[in-house]
Design goal:
This is Glycosyl hydrolase family 32. It comes from Thermocatellispora tengchongensis. InterPro entries: Glyco_hydro_beta-prop_sf. The protein has about 325 residues and is mostly beta strands. The protein has one domain: Glycosyl hydrolase domain, family 43 (Tachylectin-2, Chain A), CATH 2.115.10. The chain contains two helices and 20 strands. The strands form five sheets. Strands 1-20-19-18 form a four-stranded antiparallel β-sheet, with no helix packed on it. Strands 2-3-4-5 form a four-stranded antiparallel β-sheet. A four-stranded antiparallel β-sheet has the order 6-7-8-9. Strand 16 and strand 17 (about 265) form a beta hairpin. It starts with 17 loop residues before the first strand and ends with a strand.
């Protein structure tokens, strides 16, 4: 069945995309990225993250925001959170979805200050400008999933079911608290990081199913992080970040996978990345793709020649 999934577009040149948001400084370690995009039929909602180098003031993922725009290119912030408001060393990808009552739900990804493990929480509000981090509630934690941490949610609804895909750190025998001494197990190379799936019938309480997109054996043998999913002929196409080791952490490149049912995924990019940048590390990551009015809109974080990362959009005709 999965062989009938149609690959809807060829690789694109990320250098041809339009810059949506740039970094604070034109230096390595300064990033603006981790995009997540929701189109509500009228407006585009963008979640994004800003990062500074380790050792800098307010280092790592220090600010996440929700912005809105009419054209999907120009955005205005309506809400933001500083890492200190969560008491966390770092935040990463957030995901905004429609709520069941006409409002909005925001999934947060951050390091739990209690155990230095990544976790995912959620907020609800009538409007994104009214999110209150004090009202956050747990969705997935290391303890609840039997992992060493879970982060970077991508959430979609199909019929009555809400699907939450998340990157996680596999629990291996012998791993102890020292693996979390840096508050980022992804950057120390002691385990691998596939994509797992949780499902829910109410968008609030999730059941963890474990790995659905495992790591590969080559360039993607360390991490395979599913970032977005698009329904297409015969099933679904997913865009994932891959890396070969923790030395490529933060500089992942984009691969493609397909699925007929959202539970079983097949990588199509094991021979090499699907898309890379033309300079630096070649990193193109956190691809969030959607089709609007017969057009692909692909948002992504890309490394620049100066080592900084920026958030871009490329628009392609949908076949």
């Amino acid at each position: 069945m999965v062989n009938r999934v149609h690959m809807p577009l060829p690789p694109f040149d990320p250098a041809e995309g339009t810059v949506v948001l740039g970094p604070e400084k034109a230096e390595p370690g300064y990033w603006t990225g981790s995009p997540g995009v929701l189109h509500d039929g009228e407006r585009y909602w963008l979640t994004y993250r800003q990062r500074r180098p380790r050792g800098a003031e307010a280092e790592r993922g220090w600010r996440c925001a929700v912005a809105v725009g009419d054209d999907g290119v120009h955005f205005t912030d309506v809400w933001s959170v500083h890492k200190d408001e969560l008491g966390t060393p770092s935040m990463e990808r957030f995901c905004l979805t429609p709520g069941d009552d006409g409002g909005f739900r925001l999934f947060l990804s951050y390091v739990d200050p209690a155990d230095n493990r990544w976790r995912i929480d959620a907020l609800t509000a009538e409007d994104p400008s009214r999110f209150d981090v004090a009202a956050r509630r747990p969705v997935l934690t290391a303890a609840a999933t039997g992992t060493e941490g879970v982060k970077d949610p991508y959430v979609m609804r199909v019929g009555p079911v809400t699907y939450l895909f998340a990157s996680f750190a596999e629990a291996l025998s012998g791993l102890g608290a020292e693996a979390h001494a840096t508050a980022d197990i992804y950057n120390v190379g002691v385990t691998t990081h596939p994509t797992g799936l949780a499902t829910s019938l109410d968008g609030e309480t999730f059941t963890w199913h474990g790995t659905v997109l495992p790591v590969g054996a080559g360039w993607n043998r360390y991490q395979v992080r599913l970032n977005s999913v698009v329904r297409t002929a015969g099933g679904y196409v997913g865009f994932y970040d891959g890396s070969a080791s923790h030395e490529e952490n933060y500089e992942e490149r984009c691969g493609i996978a397909v699925s007929a049912d959202l539970f079983t995924w097949h990588r199509l990019s094991d021979e090499g990345p699907w898309v890379t940048a033309p300079h630096g590390t070649g990193s193109v990551r956190y691809v969030d793709a959607l089709v609007v009015d017969g057009e692909w809109r692909i948002y992504y974080e890309m490394t620049r020649a100066d080592g900084a990362h920026e958030l871009r959009l490329i628009r392609l005709p949908a076949s």
